[in-house]
UniProtKB/TrEMBL annotation:
The chain crosses the membrane at residues 50-72. This is CU044_5270 family protein. Residues 175-199 are annotated as: Disordered. Keywords: Membrane, Transmembrane, Transmembrane helix.
Length: 328
């Protein structure tokens, strides 16, 4: 294209003087989760879920199993996110009703030197083969952790055998076994001082300050913050109520549908839509969800909701204090 044509096109562009904002982080993350970059067969670096860093000049995506990391172009000071609004007057919201009815759980008040957490979920990996097609597998994983007050952790991970998407995937991974996870039980010990989330005060404002960051990601970030907290710490009744009050006062959070988690427990689905930050992205992007017990306010599971329903990627099976690490 020569310079004259470029100048004519530029002059005819009705949006030539419209500033383009950085975009919505959660929407980029959703689109990134369906893409894979890099075309070699080097093992990618393992990353924790939902890692978002605004430090790059363009969006860069790397997918490993169920993990997606998105680096998003900065644009000066980030805009303020959706507000944590005051409690509504009149008829209580779905979340306020859950908070009002939250009873003491069976193991509330039972002490012990170790926080015991047992979770189950699905992991996996997608790799581009030399012929350009993709090989995929998933596997079920159960994790049990015993965490002492000093931060030391005993962890037991149980990986089930992989399930391949098709025959080509099976052949590829069997010829490249370094991509496959360890199958069976693995025990490991982490030293004292291992970082973990701190439990905020049993106050909705304190929960909002600790869990709803970065605020510009929109309401789905509030759900992510709650998921990460209950995945690492045990919450008593007062803290569970504070979490529900915080979500009830967070603009954009949806609540009310009943669902059943993979272990058969019934709860209420609470969802934060993705792509609904201060610069909303067009279209439907689904949302991050948690499943809350209508009796105790305990978070039972976490997952993703779209037009087809909710897929639970993590189920929180046991959460209590115990006096013995490594048992049961």
């Amino acid at each position: 294209m020569n310079e004259q044509i470029m100048n004519l096109l530029t002059a005819a562009d009705p949006a030539r003087d419209v500033p383009v904002a950085p975009g919505d982080v959660e929407a980029l993350l959703h689109r990134a989760s369906h893409d894979v970059t890099g075309y070699d067969l080097r093992p990618p670096v393992r990353r924790r879920r939902f890692l978002v860093a605004a430090v790059a000049a363009a969006a860069v995506v790397a997918v490993t199993g169920t993990t997606a990391a998105v680096l998003v172009r900065g644009g000066g000071q980030p805009p303020a996110g959706p507000p944590v609004v005051p409690a509504p007057s009149g008829t209580p919201s779905c979340l306020d009703r859950l908070a009002d009815s939250a009873m003491t759980a069976m193991r509330d008040g039972v002490g012990g030197p170790y926080e015991y957490l047992r979770t189950a979920g699905t992991s996996g990996r997608t790799v581009q083969m030399p012929n350009g097609n993709f090989a995929r597998f998933t596997y079920q994983v159960e994790t049990r952790t015993w965490t002492a007050e000093d931060g030391s952790v005993h962890r037991r991970t149980i990986n089930q055998p992989p399930e391949y998407a098709d025959a080509a995937s099976r052949t590829f991974f069997r010829n490249n076994p370094s991509w496959l996870p360890h199958t069976g039980t693995r025990e490991e010990d982490l030293p004292a001082g291992t970082p973990r989330k701190q439990v905020p005060a049993a106050d909705p404002a304190a929960m909002a300050e600790a869990l709803y960051q970065p605020r510009e990601n929109g309401p789905s970030q509030a759900i992510t913050g709650v998921e990460e907290l209950v995945g690492q710490r045990i919450l008593d009744r007062e803290h569970r109520i504070a979490v529900l009050r915080f979500l009830a006062r967070t603009d954009g959070i949806l609540c009310g549908t009943e669902a059943t988690d993979p272990s058969g427990r019934v709860g209420v689905v609470v969802t934060g839509p993705e792509g609904a930050g201060p610069r909303p992205s067009p279209g439907e992007h689904g949302g991050r969800s948690i499943l809350v017990s209508p009796n105790t306010g305990v978070v039972l599971a976490a997952g993703y909701t779209d037009a087809t329903g909710t897929t639970w990627h993590t189920v929180f099976l046991d959460q209590y204090f115990t006096s013995v690490a490594g048992a049961p």
